[in-house]
Amino acid sequence: MSFSILTSFERGALAQLVTQHMTLQAMADALGVAKSTVYYELKRVVPYDPQLAQFDADQKRRRCGRPLGLTAAVKCLIENHLRLTWSPEMIAKAYGLNTASIYNWLIRGDLDFPLCELPNRNVRHRRAGETRGTFKVSQSIEDRPQAVNDRRSFGHWEVDTVLSSRGQAKDCLVTFVERKTRLLWAIKAPNRTAKTLNDTFGKFMGTFGSQVKSITVDHGKEFADYRSIEQDYQIKVYFCHPYSPWERGSNEYFNRRLRWFFPKKTNFDQITTDEILAALELINQRPLKIHHQQTAIESFRACSD
After folding, report:
1. What angle do CA 173, 178, 181 make, to 5 degrees?
2. What are phi and psi of 295, to 5 degrees?
3. Residue of 47, 114, 37 whose CA lies nearest to 79
4. How many other CB atoms sit within 10 Å of the CB of residue 210?
């Protein structure tokens, strides 16, 4: 017999049975309930009084049920972290909340943050084909060591460019993502010619140096002079297959994170280095599920030591 809740009448009958000094099992059999029901009911009020027991049960019943949970403090916390480009899942994991609840609050408009502005929201786009010619490559991504593919080895980066709005300035961002730690870096460049890319890569190496062992890129013409990079810095350059952005999945993902700060219509000629660094800090300081809530910066520093 399972545990059950007594009615007001049954509580009155139990009070009568208590006066007869019956055992718990005998009282349970008389009421037709489990022994545990009688045991917990008698602990509700000591000494037992059926009216006080009914009052206690009514009070607890009114307090039961799932609370809303969206207090002013929780609302402020969620909104602030959404503006820092944290995803609802990140916020829920870090602060013991429910991911579905955060999405429900967003959908109902309980949070002062538009659902359409969530990072990675509606990211499927038609991709334009490369129209700037082709060149021969020496090393395909198929030649990349398995330890790099599995992200077990540190110091292997994916590189790409993020462009200004079509028809505006030629300025762009050259983005770098370390595969194991997911650290994102970006450097502004005046255009994406092969010479400019190599100059920008020199700045990148000036910052990270020995922490770069290889890079993986696409077939964009800005990487046409890749042999100079290999010779100057003694690193390997691997090329993805044409029209296969998923082979640089980390780079594609974090470029979208960067686009949250600099949308498609951004003119990078008008963006300062300080604005870029501020965006990078916010992205790299977010806890990552894949690192058990450790940030990319923390993971990178641990691998660098």
Report:
1. 130
2. -80, 165
3. 114
4. 8
Q: Would you state the pLDDT for residue 100? A: 87
Amino acid letter, residue 46? V
pLDDT tens by residue, 16-65:
998 998 899 999 898 889 989 889 899 888 888 988 888 888 887 776 65
Contacts of 7 (CB under 8 A, 6+ apart): none
Q: Are 57 and 41 in contact (CB under 8 A)?
A: no
State residue 3's pLDDT score: 59
One-letter amino acid at 20 equals Q
Counted residue by residue, the chain has a size of: 305
Q: Is the pLDDT of residue 242 over 50?
A: yes
Report how far residue 189's alpha carbon sits from residue 299's, in angstroms, rounded to the nearest whole number.
Answer: 27
In DSSP terms, which residues pair with 216 in a beta bridge? Answer: 158, 238
Amino acid at the residue 293:
Q
Residues linked to residue 186 through DSSP beta bridges, in sequence order:
175
**Which residue's structure tokens are 């350059």?**
237
- State pLDDT tens for residues 106-117: 988 889 998 877
Query: What is the pTM (predicted TM-score) of this model?
Result: 0.63
